[in-house]
Amino acid sequence: MVQKEKYVEHSPSKGEEAQQQVNPVESQPVTCKRSPLTRMSFKLFRRGSARCIGLLSAFVTILLCLYYISIGQPNPAPVSETGAPSAALRGSPLNAFTGFSVGGGSSAMSHQQKSHAAIVSNQKRSSETKAGQTTGSPESQSVEEYSNSDWGDKCYELLQSSTNITASEEHSKFDFQPEWMRSKEYWDRGFEERFEAQKKDKQRPPLKIIVVPHSHNDPGWLKTFTNYFQSDSRQILNLLVTKMQEYTDMTFIWSEISFLQLWWDQAHPTKQRALRRLIDSGRIEITTGGWVMTDEANVHIYPMLDQLIEGHQWLKNNLNVTPKVGWSIDPFGHGSTVPYLLSGANFEGAIIQRIHYAWKQWFARQQSGDFIWKPYWRGRTVAGKDSDTGSLLTHNMPFDIYSIKSSCGPHPFICLNFDFRKIPGEYTEYSVKAQFITDDNLEAKAQLLLEQYARTASLFPHNVALIPVGDDFRYNKDREVDQQYQNYKKLIDHIMANRRLYNADIRFGTPSDYFEAIKERMKAFPTFKGDFFVYSDIFSEGRPAYWSGYFTTRPFYKLLSSELEHQLRSAEIIFTLAYNTARQAKRENAIKIYEKNYELIINARRNLGLFQHHDAITGTSKAAVMRDYAMRLFESTQNMVKMQESCLELLLQKGQPRHHGFLLSEFERDNVNKLPRKMPIQMVSGDDSMPTVSGGEGGAGGTASVGAAASFVLYNSLAQKRLEVVTLRVQHPNVKVLNDKGVELSHIQINPVWNITDTYEQGLGTSVSGSVGRIRTSTRQFEVMFVAELEPLSLSTYRVQVDEVNFKRNIATIYCDDCTGAGPAAVSPPEEAEASPAPVFEARGKPAGDIQLENPHMRLLFDEKSGFLKTITRKNQKKELLKPLQCNIKFAAYRSAQFHSGAYLFKTDPEQSEAEKEVLEGYTDMRIIITSGPIASDVTVIYGPFLAHTVRIFNTRTHLDAAIYVENDIDFEPPPKNRETELFMRLVTNIDNIAQVPLQRDPLKEPADAATMPELPVFYSDQNGFQYHERIKVPAIGIEGNYFPITSGAFIQDTRLRLTLLTTHAQGAASYEPGQLEVMLDRRTLYDDYRGMGEGVVDSRLTRHKFWLLVEDLPGGQHDQLQPPSYKVLSQQAQQMANGLRYPPNLYFVSSLEQPELSAALLPLVRLLPKGALPCDVHLTNLRTLSDPELQLFPSASALLVLHRQGFDCSVSAGRDLSMEALCPLSSKGLGNVQLGRLRLHTIEATSLTGTEQKPSKDSFHIRSLAEISLEPMQMRTYNLTFRAEV
């Protein structure tokens, strides 16, 4: 809990100190204070006598607290069966009857006890602590003080919001082969007749036209970001500020802050002032104001919001402006996350452009192109009405694209006459056709243009038309600005001079003017839920082209982005805590270092933000531009790892920090083109500062000398307790691992490192022909696997030591046919066979028949020939086998349709009789390796250099046992191999995921009887790691139109079971046949797909794809038909695992070679949430230091705390015996007593999502403590925390 501003800092009394020494398990017992409670009592009376019972319990709590302090004794800890104390009953006996049974197991339970006790069962946990809390609080207050009455139930069912339009329902009814396809224009006789009728309608408001000059600036596409700035964007901005002083009624809009920041930093102060004046007068409007115009399919919520914050903060600090209108005209399809974020940033409206041609026609026909876009889930009802949190007024541009040709009206051949750019040496369709406006043609041209504008406005009930005048990188020539302005000015002046005759009002304006005008004329707008994927255009060739290829294109770069996202988020949080810790402790040297290095964080934010651009993370820029993006991501990733090292070093040391440079990441990133490589930890013996190896140097597992040891730190950046299977590289197999309490972990596993899986050793075994050559285990490196229990937001120091006695029982057994050749020589290189002792790993021949892996929760069956998974058989609580679930894993590929499948588009080759090709048949060299050990068992299948596929299950007696880990290493090899290949991994199950109501959703025109009704599979795909959408197959379009983007996961379900697949990065997913779920892994298309990029995609690299697969039970019983349908989300376990996959714990080696006294100076465990975790469903999205408004390259004392209450489905679980309850007990009390490190807070303010404006929380901006924060399920909120300067 944050200290309230006027409270006195509390120092522990002697009684408390005694307690702390007596009871090491509990870190601090509860003590009480008077002032907050007396305040609370007045508040209680103000709220009415219903709170009297609460007040009574509060006083009883005080008395009992005082009693416990006076006797100075610890509360007795209830003992669980294993003898480990579980969390003691803190507070008072009152807890026994307050009706809560929440709390975490004891942090002192050793790993051994943990795995056997299945993490203390529910009955043993009667503690009243906050979710996951393991420490008492020095300022414990009554239950009411920290129970947030607005928080809602700990288990809830999310319902769908009620709207006029639901995307999936309308989409399934569309005609996807309309008659107007050939002409490419939907404007038919029906539209024309309606337009003529409207002209005669006296009631219809007069025509109003707002002309918006714009220039779409891509921060990288055919040229790099910097090249575009130098060749175009700088010139455009220079021309604007000079020409618009001359043309006093011209308006303009600008969106990409990445370009604006570069220009601003280099612009002369007079130009800066001119821009400020233009913005203040409203003539230049900043739209959206993100760092880039973000892609909406592949971008995760973290960088999507972060690039918006970066842009908005820059605008606030430099131009003192906050954008109010979204302008998203080029992303290839639109999702519902961006409108949610813009709504949270207090936007008034947003404009979208690229949606399916059938949607374009539908909105025009229905006159519904302006609508309120609502979240898919229903928020709290306020005064009988649904809350409008996250809703945004949205305008769909009615025509194909944002160029002048396609946006003045329904007829492009007429609109071409009104693009007045004529530059010597440029020959384009418009420069040939357009004629400048003269006195002779003025009237005719004005009439012609107005007819187009009026037709555009006829598609809306309000009769207002928004007309963009611009295109990519327009207004980059002095001459063009003059041509466009002067010609349009003549037309506008002529129409306004004859406005009675034309009955029209026309002027230059901005999107804000448009929203103002339509709100004046319309009081209510239709509501809409859903999204606009998959986008399809028709204007290019007069036939549908589905933009679903870019969901997967260039996975190597998509993975680089999620890697930087993880490292940046980890660095942001730890930097904020370390920097303010240094400030409060007056550590001048540390402060200087942090201030100097803060610029690296700014650059990392901007490099990550830049890559979220809709031609970057999509993989749709030229190969050289992609490499430029990759270098930026790679450099920032390295910088953020170094930043974490320096921050962790400060927080790990007791008292004054004296040591520097002693932490080292376990990963070596030495080349942007290669995967990061895990380094082995260096073990040193106590008396000698040199690493020691006894036995033959480098021989088969040369064992380490007695006494050698090393330490490493695990940094958990999530705000919940977590269990993670950690793997550590070591140089010797004879080791043991000790946790942060110095207790040896009873379960560890020593695995081999293979020359196949380690890309750096690959050269040793592979031959030129592409066969794998001999597989062997490394003799220089081994992998230690163990389960780490990590406190929420914590740094835990573990040790690895030599173990001469027990290490053999931890060594995994290997089964494979090719590595058992000639005894020991097969596992170690032949030339070393003489000197080396017996091999470390016993390699046995693969047993005949199908392969089986088993743990206490399930049994997996693999095909003996292919090595791929066949069935999953789960066990009930008595450990009896249930009915097997078919779950075949299959790898195959679609053949790309040449010129119609490329970086953007996806289409299977219509020439081929078989849409799919068996891509693995070309690799005859196939191996199967089985590894079995005390913690994990796995099956790895290797198909030449093309694919290494691993399926692993765990035996940890925790919730991890319910999940299956899948890892794929994919290498397409240099072209022309695997050309026109779109590789996917498909899960074929017997889950019956058929849509419930086929009658309403039957897209076939002719009436069908029940027997011929199509069985339409349905699956749920995540969007931006923020929400889930239901996807029902539309049979009228091919597989390309039924592929959807996922960022973190997808699931299919029937009435009994749910199968969830979680992933690390963006890719395409589909369920095209019942029971199937597939994800696309990589694509190679030799040919360009004619969407402007001008080249195919052939720069594939070796990529590593990681997944969790989870089978869970659904509750029985059908949903109540009267209620609105439920909104489907992940289970608690799936949500936690998705967070864990995206934000794994970071491992740092402690290199104590130069600093022998170092280990004494380090704290074994640093809890950065000392008073307990955040609730299970509250994700700490970010804790982001704000830049100083005056000195923008320096950090300020304020930070934005971004919280996301991730909704989850309580009723879905993998089994009660493996519940998350012990790790993260559910609570309905809100955030509770949250404290960040030992930091004192000065103020907490509720702000807009981007932190630019204060947002009232109930009745005031200022919040007295974090406990008062209230979040609805699914809601995301931002708070501005200002830290005190002194302790």
From TrEMBL:
CC per GO annotation:
Golgi membrane
Metal-binding found in the keyword field: yes
* Enzymatic reactions: N(4)-{beta-D-GlcNAc-(1->2)-alpha-D-Man-(1->3)-[alpha-D-Man-(1->3)-[alpha-D-Man-(1->6)]-alpha-D-Man-(1->6)]-beta-D-Man-(1->4)-beta-D-GlcNAc-(1->4)-beta-D-GlcNAc}-L-asparaginyl-[protein] + 2 H2O = 2 alpha-D-mannopyranose + an N(4)-{beta-D-GlcNAc-(1->2)-alpha-D-Man-(1->3)-[alpha-D-Man-(1->6)]-beta-D-Man-(1->4)-beta-D-GlcNAc-(1->4)-beta-D-GlcNAc}-L-asparaginyl-[protein]
Q: Where is the Glycoside hydrolase family 38 central domain?
A: 545-633
- Bias (Polar residues) occurs at 18-30, 120-148
Q: Which GO terms describe its biological process?
A: mannose metabolic process; N-glycan processing
Q: What class of enzyme is it?
A: hydrolase
CDD domains tied to this protein: GH38N_AMII_GMII_SfManIII_like
Locate the transmembrane regions by residue number: 48-69
Instruction: Tell me the segments the record calls region Disordered.
Output: 1-30, 105-148
Q: Which InterPro entries match?
A: Gal_mutarotase_sf_dom, Glyco_hydro/deAcase_b/a-brl, Glyco_hydro_38_C, Glyco_hydro_38_cen, Glyco_hydro_38_cen_sf, Glyco_hydro_38_N, Glyco_hydro_38_N_sf, Glyco_hydro_57/38_cen_sf
Compositional bias annotation for Basic and acidic residues: 1-17
**What PANTHER family does the database record attribute to this sequence?**
ALPHA-MANNOSIDASE
Q: Which family is annotated?
A: Belongs to the glycosyl hydrolase 38 family.
Tell me what this protein is called.
Alpha-mannosidase
